[in-house]
Each structure stands twice: as C-alpha cells, then as structure tokens.
C-alpha cells in the first residue's frame, strides 16, 4: 500500500473553523439577546395574528 504524504486530515474536507477568529469589527450578540428578540418577535406575530 502506498503511504500518503502530508499531514493534512482527510476528514476535514477543506472546512475552516471560523469561530477561532477574533475579528473586532464583527457584530457580537449574546445568546440571551437572541432569545429575547426571538421571543418578542413571536409574541408580536401572535398578537397581530389575533387582531387581524
């Protein structure tokens, strides 16, 4: 059997981990804020659905 040269992982398939990036220009939103916004949007849609 032929030995593969190089130390790259075959299973990675060219995927890049972007979560290790420390870009200070990126928008940072806390998970709590996402849940609050989603809950508020759901309640607003529910109320509008009841009214119309």
UniProtKB/TrEMBL annotation:
Family as reported in the entry's similarity comment? Belongs to the SEC61-beta family.
Q: Which GO terms describe its biological process?
A: protein transport
User: Topology in the membrane?
Assistant: Single-pass membrane protein
Q: Which GO terms describe its cellular component?
A: plasma membrane
Q: What is this protein called?
A: Preprotein translocase subunit SecG
- Does the keyword Zinc belong to this entry? no
> What's the encoding gene here?
secG
The protein's matches in InterPro entries, at most eight in alphabetical order, are given as:
Preprot_translocase_SecG, SecG/Sec61-beta/Sbh
Cellular location(s): Cell membrane
Its assembly, as annotated, is:
Component of the protein translocase complex. Heterotrimer consisting of alpha (SecY), beta (SecG) and gamma (SecE) subunits. Can form oligomers of the heterotrimer.
Q: Which residues cross the membrane?
A: 26-48
Reported function: Involved in protein export. The function of the beta subunit is unknown, but it may be involved in stabilization of the trimeric complex.
The protein's UniProt keywords, in alphabetical order, are:
Cell membrane, Membrane, Protein transport, Translocation, Transmembrane, Transmembrane helix, Transport
Main localization of the protein? membrane
| Regions of this protein lying in the Cytoplasmic compartment | 1-30
Query: Per its UniProt record, what Pfam families does this chain match?
Result: Sec61_beta
């Amino acid at each position: 059997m032929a030995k593969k040269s190089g130390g790259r992982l075959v299973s990675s398939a060219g995927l890049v981990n972007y979560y290790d990036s420390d870009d200070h220009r990126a928008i940072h939103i806390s998970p709590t804020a996402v849940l609050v916004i989603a809950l508020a949007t759901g309640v607003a849609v529910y109320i509008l659905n009841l009214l119309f």
